[in-house]
Design brief:
Length: 200
């Protein structure tokens, strides 16, 4: 167990090297594809986006509820498209991509935090067992930084799929208190992520 909470966060936030996690391309291959795309090679750009989509799907499935993954992938691909002119071909592509992916992850968590003050939809629960396990493992270190009531509310509602009313009965808190703890807890998680270093 890592004693230092910041070290724990850094371990959780580091993805596997792009390309190896998805098994479709090496990161240095992505460097070349992006450089070719910047020079107007449409085929290279299409191939790059296709391969990035696969890696990003894996990246976000490990970090977000299942219902948020597709939006996060699309938003990240749009950000890559909009910022492609900022990539320096002399530098590795992986850190550039990882920084964008992390920012979109934070954006998705912020969106969840805002929506937590409203009635939560049923499809926000994580139904796929593997997704639930991997999402929970990524969030475990972050939950350790929260007040216990906030961590419990997020665990019940976001990870275990309880409705707000079910979580209220489980904890003995009012439904509005459960929603408030989920909202404030996710806001705290977002704040923690924003103060950590970008993913290497």
């Amino acid at each position: 167990m890592v004693a230092n909470p910041i070290s724990r966060l850094n371990l959780v936030l580091q993805p596997q090297r792009p390309g190896r996690e998805a098994g479709v391309a090496r990161a240095d291959g992505w460097d070349a594809l992006m450089a070719a795309a910047q020079n107007g090679h449409g085929g290279a750009y299409q191939r790059l986006l296709t391969e990035l989509s696969g890696w990003l799907g894996t990246y976000f499935r490990r970090r977000l509820p299942a219902g948020e993954v597709d939006d996060a992938v699309q938003e990240t691909l749009l950000a890559v498209h909009r910022r492609r002119h900022t990539y320096d071909p002399q530098l590795p592509f992986a850190p550039w991509l990882a920084a964008i992916a992390k920012r979109k992850w934070i954006d998705q968590l912020r969106g969840l935090s805002r929506r937590a003050s409203d009635e939560l939809p049923d499809d926000l629960a994580i139904h796929d067992h593997e997704s639930a396990v991997t999402s929970a493992s990524v969030l475990a270190a972050l939950l350790g930084e929260l007040r216990p009531v906030q961590a419990q509310a997020i665990t019940l509602v976001k990870l275990q799929g309880f409705s707000v009313e079910e979580a209220s009965r489980e904890t003995g808190l009012s439904a509005s208190a459960v929603k408030m703890n989920v909202h404030r807890g996710l806001a705290r998680v977002t704040a923690i992520l924003e103060t950590t270093d970008d993913i290497d």
